Amino acid sequence: MADLATEPDPGPEPAPAHGELGPPLVELRGVDKHFGALHVLKHIDLTVARGEVVVIIGPSGSGKSTLCRTINRLETIDSGSIVIDGRELPEEGRELARLRAEVGMVFQSFNLFAHRTVLENVTLGPIKAKGVKKSDAVARARELLDRVGVGNQAAKLPAQLSGGQQQRVAIARALAMGPKVMLFDEPTSALDPEMINEVLDVMVGLARDGMTMLVVTHEMGFARRAANRVVFMDAGEIVEQADPETFFTAPRSERARDFLSKILTH
């Protein structure tokens, strides 16, 4: 047996779940964010490679959702920088709108237009924001709705769908914009338990197809199945990060061990 004391610690390696990862696509450098006196993000440094799936976990109030929302400037930052595909995220204006179109986002609530059909919800963005021809937008929307398993619901209004179906429509709507990266902010937290897997299965499929994804979630099974890297946050800081196998079997920090002991025993 090798003498472990004499071997250098190579550190955590990203899980090779989806093949070779590409160059950095999303970079957060020294990002700070306050809500009044509350320091919700504390000098965050995080890089997401092209094709990588990063899952962010941690207790409530740790800053996970705020971090996710800063990446397309739904939340402003106080200091630091956010770079997407080599370009710094602008603060406002047309350049911000253009860059936002490259960052798909799926929220806890589905945010579908209630008075428009499923098909119209998916085609509206490409037609209005990107100038895509209606016939092309419709064809692409039907492909995406089939991909997420709700192609037969295209003519219905959102209220006629289950929560799981609505969330899958929301994923198709984000994909219709042709994003370079997809952000998921607790996408299953508003769903009934029986609907969670149908959404997670779509997300796993996207991961296997090589979509760059940053996912805030409490679904540890998804993290094990699909993530290249798990990032654990607490009190506005990134406490540790590692590939899923390393993180779930041998977390380094006491905070992570305590967190996992509470959620994995329920």
TrEMBL record:
The entry's keywords: Amino-acid transport, ATP-binding, Cell membrane, Membrane, Nucleotide-binding, Transport
Membrane topology annotation: Peripheral membrane protein
Main location: membrane
SMART domains, A to Z: AAA
Cell compartments where the protein resides: Cell membrane
Record organism: Cellulomonas persica
Catalyzed reaction equations: a polar amino acid(out) + ATP + H2O = a polar amino acid(in) + ADP + phosphate + H(+)
Organism superkingdom: Bacteria
Pfam families in the cross-refs: ABC_tran
Domain ABC transporter: 26-260
GO terms of molecular function: ATP binding; ATP hydrolysis activity; ATPase-coupled polar amino acid-transporter activity
Enzyme category, top tier: translocase
EC assignment: 7.4.2.1
Name used for this protein in its record: ABC-type polar-amino-acid transporter
Region (Disordered), start-end ranges: 1-23
Coiled coil: none
GO cellular component: plasma membrane
Listed SUPFAM superfamilies: P-loop containing nucleoside triphosphate hydrolases (SSF52540)
InterPro entries linked: AAA+_ATPase (IPR003593), ABC_ATPase_HisP-typ (IPR030679), ABC_transporter-like_ATP-bd (IPR003439), ABC_transporter-like_CS (IPR017871), MetN_ABC_transporter-like (IPR050086), P-loop_NTPase (IPR027417)
Keyword Acetylation: no
Family assignment from sequence similarity: Belongs to the ABC transporter superfamily.
Keyword Ribonucleoprotein applies: no
